[in-house]
Structures are given as C-alpha cells and as structure tokens.
Amino acid sequence: MIGLISATAAGAAARDRLAAAWPDRTRVYEGRPLADAVRAACAECEQLVCFLATGAVVRLVAPLLGDKASDPGVVCVDEGGRFAVSLVGGHAGGANELARAVGEVLGARPVVTTATDAVHLPGLDTLGLPVEGDVAAVSRALLDGEAVALRAEVSWPLPPLPVADEGAYTLRVTDRLVEPGAREVVLRPPTLVVGVGASKGAPVEEVLGVIEGALREAGLSAASVAGLATVDAKAGEPGIVAAARRLGVPVVTYAAGELARVEVPNPSGAPLAAVGTPSVAEAAALLGGGELLVPKRKSAGRPATATCAVVRRPGRGRLAVVGLGPGARDLLTPRAKAELRRASVLVGLDQYVDRIRDLLRPGTRVLESGLGAEEERARTAVAEARRGQAVALIGSGDAGVYAMASPALAEASDDIDVVGVPGVTAALAAGAVLGAPLGHDHVSISLSDLHTPWDVIERRVRAAAEADLVVTFYNPRSRGRDWQLPKALGILAEHREPVTPVGVVRNASRADESSRLTTLAALDPATVDMMTVVTVGNTATREIAGRMVTPRGYRWQEGAR
Ligand code: SAH
Predict the structure, then answer these.
(1) Residue 469's closest CA among 537, 533, 402, 543?
(2) Which of 44, 259, 359, 545 is the least buried, fewest Cβ under 10 Å from its Cβ?
(3) Which atom in ligand 1 lies closest to the alpha carbon of residue 507?
(4) How far apart are CA 5 and CA 2, in angstroms?
(5) Would you state the pLDDT for residue 54?
(6) 366 Cβ inside 6 Å of ligand 1
C-alpha cells in the first residue's frame, strides 16, 4: 500500500490525482496533524508519497527510520508538482521506481540521486526491440546500478548499457525460443529472415503454418523475424501478404533472375517452371547473406502449397550521422540527442565532442580526433559500424553540409544501416539572427579552396551573381586565406548595388555570438574569420528596422508599398 500525505490545497489536488490513478494501491491520510499522519502511514504502508517540501519530510520521517532493508520507500512531490524526489529507500524500498511512476502520472520530473552514473538510461522496453521477461525488475536494476549480466547470443548494435559479465540479473540477447527466467529479460533482435514460396491461392493458414512450424522445430522465436522474403511474382500473393501482416513484419521481394544466381542446397524444377528460378524460399532468405538455419521445407497440405526457409542474417551495424546544430544546446534536436544516447561508439572532432559529452551514456566509447583528421574519422566510423556497433558520427550544424556525412557515406558499403539526423546549419542560424535574408532563392558557397580549385568556386560565385541569388559564404576567411572573400564580393558587386545589405554573423547561437548588418561597399573583410558566415542579399534585399529582409514577392505586399 502507498500512503499519501499532503498539507496544502495544491498538494491535496495532486494527491487526489494520484489516488484516482491508483485507487487500489493508495490510501489517503488526512484530518490529523502531519506527524501523526506520517507515523500511521509508516506503520501501515510500505511506501509513502508526501506532497510536502523535502525538509519537512526529512524531519517527519527521520525518527521513524530503522535500516535500509526495512525502511519505507518515501517520495516527495513539491508544491508545484514539478518534481517527484526519491528521498528514502531508493532501492529496497522501491522509492526510485515509485518516483518514476509518480512522475508519469503527475507529469513531474523524477529525481533519483542514487547510482547517478546510470541515469539517462531508457527502459529496456524503449530499445525498439521486442522484449520478454521481467522488464521492470531488470530495468530498475540497470537504473540503480546493480550488476546486470549481458548474454549476447547474437550480435546486434545495442546502445551502451551498464552491463557486466556476471550479476544477479540477466539481459539476454537471442533469437532462440527461450523462456526468460526470474530476474531475466530477453531482447529479440530482428535477426531472422524467412524465405517463402507459395502456389497461387495458397491459404494463409498453410503459409503461416509452415513458417511457425519451421521456427518452432528449429527453436527460434517468431519475435526475431525481421521479414518475409519471396520472388517479385509473389509480391501480392494473398497468403504471403496475410501471413506477414499476422507476424507484423514486411515482405521483401526479389527478381527471379537475382534469386536464380543464389547458390542453394535444395534447388528444384517446379519453381523454375513457374517463376523462373530454381529456388524461391532458400534463395530469397539467403540473398542478403547469412546462415541457413532451416533448409527448405514444405507445408502440410496435400498437395503442399507453401515452402519456407529460415536464415539468420549477420547483425548489421548502425551509423547515425548526427548534426549538432550551430552551438546552442536548445538548437540540438531531440532526435539528435536520442541518437547520441543510442550510440555505443561516438566519432567526432574533439571540440564537437566537448559540446555534447554530458549527454552521452556511461559506457559510450568516444573516438575523438583533431582538425584535419576527417578522412580518418569517416573511416573509423564506418569500420566500427561494420563491426556491428551502433555508431554516431557527429558534425557541427548539419553533418551533411561541408561536413562528415559525404566522406563517411562514400566509404560505406550496403552492409550497414545509415540514419541521418539533420541539424540547424550555420546559414539558417545566421539567417534567424539577421532577420529574413533567405526569404527567396539562395545558395551556400564555401570559399575554402583547400579541396575545391578556386576557378570552380569563382564560376559558382559568378553564376550566383548572375542568377540574383542570395549567397551565404561558409569558410569565408582564415589566416593565410584572405583574398578569396574580397574577390567573391567583387564578383557579386558587378551585379548588385553597393548598398546591397550584407549580414555578418560570428558564432551564431553561441555565448559569444555577434552580428553586423553592413553593405557590399562597406564590408571590411578583415572583420571576418572562420567562425563567421557572410550572407549577401540579392537585388531586392532591404534593411528594414535594422533587419535584413529578402522579399518573398507576395502580391499583397507590393500593393501596400
Ligand atoms: N556543417 C557546418 C558547416 C561546416 S563548414 C554547418 O552545417 O553549419 C565550417 C564553416 O561553417 C565555418 O567556417 C563558418 O563559416 C560556418 N559556421 C559553422 N558554425 C557557425 C556558427 N555557429 N556561426 C557562424 N558560422 C558558423
């Protein structure tokens, strides 16, 4: 039973919401002095939720405490209902878990101060994999820093988890048909591909029957089936489509010619005549590579109308290419944050890693390197993913804009999964600082001639000038690279008035952000450096109330002018 105690009207309102959510588990103590209420609740309940300041609760419960093993779990909720603080009995008393549960109901943030090294850990049911067993107990053990043994029977790119070789709790990663034991959770990675063949009109029961029979006899779990695979001609075969729907997995199809090239143990004449490949089930299952666990078998019908074969594919690594945004923490997207925590290996430039180090989960392997090591970073990230790891490769702004995404993907083969997370690129961050300079067609041009010959850059600047595009210059100027910006501005000036607005933004969104609005004629290139972007307006761009505005060209605004 959970005893609920409050002193104020706001506290009573929150208390009543909790009591309404958990009518059978809670008991309200009211109508007597607080000290009496707390004493009674401690005697009668295993847990307390006090809608009081922590100081008050400390004074009230302290005299009643004995030892860790028998003390109640006590959670405090503040007057504003913002925090649910696990105060006493975090582990044995279950207060950490209770704080999280109370937080869920009330929309309060759980505050857990034990085993802080393990916080930011998602529940095991949030990893995106089917999960069986005692999820609550093992998640709690992970959160509370208790030893959880990892038994990975198949390789899969898991996020970093504070696991050990041995422990009272077990996290098992397997596609085998096993019953989770006590204090055990079984994660089901999608490692199995089921190749399926079916005659026209094969009933779904027969298709499903042969698949389930094959899995059962091989001791494999249906929860680990990633998908069904078959030949293009059977893409719409109702029995296959319905079986996939019931298993909750997609159907992948391949051309007969592609399947015919796959070497299989049990080719036969029938499918060759019907669809043009000597094997459908085995070939389709094996096409993506892997180990044949169940060779072709036929369904039970007379005549049999379905075949299947099961393959375990090798665990595919995962490469997330993550843009961190221009600098400010609140311009880092929630998706980027989630990917940083999802990764067990982080690859990036040291100064970018510093920006997000606090977000990483304990156990994340950080591979950082200095400026100039781009090629090495790209190679490392891809190599780690190919080893089956979950890798995040980070970049400032958007990782695809003059950054790591393209060199990394140029290195990557199709044996890894790649996920891109967009970030706010410098041109957009600067645009928001300046006003609305990008309101009409615009381009970005990097003035770095380190990797691009200057005549190519110059041609593009000239084209942008002639096309009247707003231009944002990245990498505008550095020590030893100082003539490019004046040269580029000169080209634009051939097509634009000297009074054309130019915005200069340095360190957009960072603590030392600065910006200036000037003109093509007045810009002093010496005030620009590598931390800066320069945005040059088109012939319609104006300065309005100190802001840089490129008209969108709305008719209703023309009328007003
Ligand atoms: N991937 C990054 C760009 C990398 S190129 C992005 O999408 O933003 C590096 C150049 O980007 C710098 O020389 C500078 O011109 C620009 N830049 C990056 N961050 C910036 C910021 N916060 N403020 C101004 N310019 C920035």
Answers:
(1) 537
(2) 545
(3) 23
(4) 10
(5) 94
(6) no
350 within some domain: yes
Q: Which structural domain, as residue segments, surrounds residue 29? A: 2-113
Distance (Å) from CA 508 to ligand 1 centroid: 9
Atom of ligand 1 nearest to the CA of 473: 15
Residue of 329, 398, 402 with the most ligand 1 atoms within 8 Å of its CB, for mutation: 402
pTM (two decimals): 0.71
Q: Which helix or strand (DSSP H or E) is residue 246 part of?
A: helix 238-247
**Are 294 and 201 found together in one domain?**
yes
Residue 401 in contact with ligand 1 by CB distance below 6 A: yes
| CATH code for the domain in which residue 34 is found | 3.40.50.11220
CATH number, residue 327: 3.40.1010.10
Q: What's the pLDDT score for residue 142?
A: 83
DSSP state string for 109-168: EEE--SSGGGTTPPPGGGSSS-EEE-HHHHHHHHHTT--EEEEESS---PPP---BSS-S
Domain-embedded: residue 64:
yes
| Any atom of ligand 1 within 6 Å of the Cβ of 475 | yes
Query: What proportion of the chain, given as a percentage, has pLDDT over 90?
Result: 78
User: Cβ(533) to ligand 1 under 6 A?
Assistant: yes
Query: Which residue ranges in the chain fall short of pLDDT 70?
Result: 114-123, 126, 558-561
